[in-house]
Amino acid sequence: MDEKNIQKSRIIIVSNRLPVILKLTEDGKTEVEKGAGGLVTAMAPVLKNRNGTWIGWPGYVQEAGVDDYMLPAIQTATSGYRVKSVMLNSDELKNYYEGFSNSILWPLFHGFTDKCIFLPEYWTSYQDVNKKFALTVCKNADDPDFIWVHDYQLILVGAQLRKMHKRNRMGFFLHIPFPPIDTFIRCPWRFELLLAMLEYDIIGFHTILSKRNFIGCIKKIIQDARIDAKIAFDETVSELKFKNRVVRIGVFPISIDYNEFSLHAWDSDVYKRSKEIRKNAPGTKILLGVDRLDYTKGIPEKLKAFKQFLTRFPKFHKKIHFIQLVVPSRREITAYADLKLKIEQLVGEINGIFSTNAWLPVQYMFRNLGRNELISLYRACDIGFITPLKDGMNLVAKEYCACNIDEKGVLILSEFAGAAQQFYQDAILANPHDIEGTAMAIHRAFNMPLEEKNQRMRNLREKIKNKDVFWWVNSFLNTAIEKNLSNFPQVDEYFPDEPTANLGR
Question: How much is the pTM?
Answer without folding.
Answer: 0.91
